[in-house]
Known about the structure:
Elements: E1 2-3, E2 19-31, E3 35-46, H1 49-68, E4 77-91, E5 94-110, H2 116-125, E6 130-137, H3 142-167, E7 177-180, E8 210-222
Antiparallel strand pairs: 1-7, 2-8, 3-5, 3-6, 4-5, 7-8
Helix pairs in contact: 1-2
Amino acid sequence: MYGYPIDKTASPSYSKHSSTIEVLGEGTVTATPNRAVVDLGVVTDGPNLQAIQAENAKAISNIIQSVMSLNIPREKIQTQDYRIEIVYDYVDGKQIFRGYKITHLLRITTDHVDQTGKLVDTAVANGANQVTSIQFTIAHPEFYENQALSVAIQHARQKAYTIANTLGVTLGAIPSQVQESPRPAGPIPYMATAKFAASAVETPIEPGQLTIKAAVRVWFHFA
């Protein structure tokens, strides 16, 4: 909460009989994403657990090495999910053991947004058969969040002056109180959930624009 102290002895406008206008202000700014977060990996299945474990581990190792060749450091590659599941078939109401399924997903973060398609294609070419998510974000969103907050405050002030002018009253120049509302989550312009096939043409993935929003509640005295 941002508070503005008011000296009520400085002006007769802020006497104990003064009234208050309460308004909501909203601000929106757009920004180009500069970070991509990709979740992808390998799903293997079969009747022999040790065999598919080895197959899965080899594929994941190949993916990691290939991604690192794109100048993505190892610390930007993190296991997001690892599961071993028993798979059954159901025949005439009976449960019949079919084998095992291993899912190993990696989360890869890169600040080279323009290489997102190449990253996906490289991983697929080296064994990835699942791409579960592609998200675009801003590495340091504080600058844009502050811009949106400034726009929200200006919006609130404009609304308060409009109300005051319509009522024919004098609005205080400085708000008596400002409260930031919970920040709404910005939309993700591109989020893929699909299986990608290797192709001679790089997969086109567009980051679009991110929208950053802010909202405030502001109180002004008037007389």
